[in-house]
Amino acid sequence: MTSEIILQAIVTGLMMGLIYALIAAGLSLIFGLMDIVNFAHGEHLMLSMFSSFWLWSLFGIDPIFSIPITILLMALCGIATHYFLIRYILKAKMLIQICATFGLSIFIRSIAQLLWTPDFRNVDKPLLEGRLEIASVFIGQPQLIASIVCLVAFIGLYLFVTRTETGLALQATAQDRQAAEILGVPSNKMFAIGWAIGLGCVAVAGGMMSNYFFIFTDVGINFALFAFVAVALGGFGSIIGCLYAGIIIGLVESLGGLLIDPSFKLLYVFAIYLLVVIYRPQGLFGRY
Amino acid sequence: MNKLDIAKSEPLWNTNKNITLIISVLLFILIALPFFGLNSFYLHLFIMIFMHAVMAQSWNVIAGLSGQISLGHGAFFGIGAYASSFFFVQYGISPWISIFIGMFFSAIVAVLIGIPMLRLSGHYFAIATLLIGISFQVVFQRWELVGAASGLWVPLTQEDSWNSLQFHSSKAPYYYIFLFFLVVTFFAVWLLNRSKIGFRLRAVRDDAQAASSLCISVSNYKIIAFVISAMIMAPMGSLFGQYILIIDPDRMFNIEISIIVLLITVLGGIGNIWGPLIGAAILIPISEYSRIYLGGTGGAVDLIFYGLILMVICIFRPEGLISFVPKNILERKKQR
Q: CB distance from A228 to chain B under 8 Å?
């Protein structure tokens, strides 16, 4: 066990962590806005990966260039989700809300399995390939670009939410729905925008990951679980908390896998979740 | 007179006559059914309905009665299956005894999981149980003592044997065993509903703060509900293990188990004792027939139905199908 291997694990963890952070940010945005946990988040990630896969395999568009299309598709999917499912259950009991999004996740996953079979696919010969070697640490180029794009998207999301008028309206709706409506912010429209942006984040992460990750129908489950953990870790509804939480999770995953036993990677992350929600239920960076 | 006094003052059997009638007729039909020469597919169908009704009842206790949503309830199913089969395979203890060992183990696990999760509620609890359900699968896939990923294989007996709970010539004995557990479980939950514990659990569910101001220990009652629920779930795992005679982590800790118990209960009517039975009686035939006519689980057609039904129910009938039944049939006689 040399320091190089540990450094390698840290770099890998950081790169994965940035992707987790963006996925979690989408989840956190939706949760903060309307108190609904999107249990179909992993399936939305899977959909966006398949979208960029099919754009590549049917039309020959490389995953990097198809990202805007994927974002558009997923944003539409988010609005559709809100329009056809979420707006009916806004006032329902939490149990019903959980069951509804859980049902959506089962539905999307099994439809995908029916249409596309559970086979593993990957994008063959994307533009981004190969790896760099910096100070004896190997960095896969697609991974590096993916994490940089995710970071940029994350910063963009943060600036959007904190600086623009629409972003402030989103925050206002999240804080007090009725007060915002009195001030002329239509909450239903805001919810739709929230879903569109939340799934747009997922689309960026999924589109970039389709460069190097295997694409199959169950791919989203682990990412969604990590996103739940990241959201709880960062504090429900806090977007900047997701960034730190995502990085922590990425590091724990890769270092735990290296130092203890790689087959129990999931368990280390879950252990962190349990520790955090038990001892600091508001999350590491939560406001409440 | 408050509700508890009313419940206490009633004799045990003083329920609505309609219900007593329905139950007796139903029970009579179910006991008599195998004598009409059902083929083994129909017996299997009924066995699955009974099993899932009990599993859903277990989920109903934790979600409907105490208001906690567990998304990893399959863990207790798997623990029950593993515990009983392990002692049977390794030490030759009869499954009749090892069923109780399985119940014991899952009760212990429920306490161990329950204590740290006392403080969690709502989304936190749901996510935590989802994670725990998956963690159990990961652990059992790699645990050499219980056969890791290949699982445990129950040694086959030559002939049908009540002692080792294996019946190769007919499914009828399994049918009666599952029916027996169904009746026992529903009776136990019915008693629980009317007991002090049941009232306190509902108090905790409806308003935890008000309940704790009345000296009801919220956390203790949450654990009690969790343990009862786990102990209902575990025997089903043991019996299912004896029914299919192979116990592997992918089947026994399948996330589909956690999904289907939730779905059945929500479909039938959450918090209502008859909900799980109605849900199972509707959903399991749909699932089995869609497997026959539309392909196996690889195509996952039944799961599409599950997801769709779950969403439709959540949108249009959050109270479940039981709410279509007129209230005066179900309710007990009003007492002055």
A: yes
